[in-house]
Structure formats: C-alpha cells, structure tokens
C-alpha cells in the first residue's frame, strides 16, 4: 500500500483521513506503525508532531517510549528526554538498550556527570553494561561530561573493544585536550588489528593538530 512509503510528516493527515474506515472518530495507528512514524518525524525535526502522535497512541511500549526519548535527545531536548523516561518508569515499563543510549545522549548533551552516573547504575542493574551500543554511549557520555578518567576505566574493562569503543575513547581524549594519549591509543588500536575508519581518522587528525604537529597529522592520515 502506498501510504507505507510516505514520510513521517504526511502520516498524521493520513490517519485523520482514514477515520472513515474505523469505528472510532479518529484513526488510532497500530503501535509498530506509529512508532515508525514517530521516528520519521523526529528525524525531520518535527518534535511537536512526533509527541502529538505519541500521545495519541492508545497503547505504548518500550519501543515507542524509547523512540520518543531518543527523538528528544537527538534534537537537543535533553530535559524533555529525561522527563519522558520518568513517565515511562511510572508506568513500570522496563528500559532496553535503545532507551539507555537515548538517555546517555541526553546526559552527554547536558554535560551532567551525575545524571550519567545514575543512568550507568541503572544499566548495571539491568545487565546491559556490556551491550556494545550502551558501552559506546557510556564512553561518550563520560567523556563529554568531563569524566575522561572514568571513561578510560570503562574502556579498559572491555576485553575486546569494538571499533566504536576505540573511536569514542580516542575522541574523548581529544575532547579533553589529552592529545598525546589519544595518539598513543590510536597506535594501540592499530596493533590490536582493528581497522580505523573515517571517524577514527578525524579524531586522530584533531589530536595531531592539537599536539601542534601538521607534519604528524599528514603522516598519520597517509600511513
């Protein structure tokens, strides 16, 4: 059916116009379909439209809540993200890894280490500390909150860090102006056998420039 290919911005009018097909005055979208629409609206930056659709959902689950929470966080509405999580807790809906990634994005955006630590505690209680996406989000949150030492302790606790973990930690060192440590970590990455990507090289180049060496930056990028 054609309407499944519509952008999120055009989904709400569809729901309204389709009300003739249902017994209810206004069409209430199926949860999975509505969650996809909310995600699309958030990507377009239409947070008000996404929240309106979210509020109209007759049934909400961890996926719909997490999508809206992430939509808030990714668009800079960090406090709204945390407030919605509080509502989710009131309904006794348990968070998943996607929820925590969204919340950690909010703590990083607020540069609030206390919030980040609190979320980390919840992560540990739910057994998701070693989830690859959550671990990356934790590294990013601690680094952006100015707790690079905590981020590095977390990084060292990883037996086999993924490339995303390496990238987050290198970026964290650069953000904290610890350029030499960023470059040393990059050397360790190469020795580990992991293949750096463009995200790695962007951070490393910034580290080289921060270190005051244009020649080192050029050598690192080409080597």
Automatic annotation (TrEMBL):
Keywords: Repeat
GO biological process: RNA modification
PPR repeat positions: 61-95, 162-196
InterPro entries hit by this protein: PPR_At4g14850-like_plant, PPR_rpt, TPR-like_helical_dom_sf
Gene3D superfamilies: Tetratricopeptide repeat domain
Keyword Metal-binding: no
GO molecular function, one term: RNA binding
Pfam family, one: PPR
Domain of life the protein comes from: Eukaryota
Cited PANTHER family: PENTACOTRIPEPTIDE-REPEAT REGION OF PRORP DOMAIN-CONTAINING PROTEIN (PTHR47926:SF359), PENTATRICOPEPTIDE REPEAT-CONTAINING PROTEIN (PTHR47926)
Name of the protein this chain belongs to: Pentatricopeptide repeat-containing protein
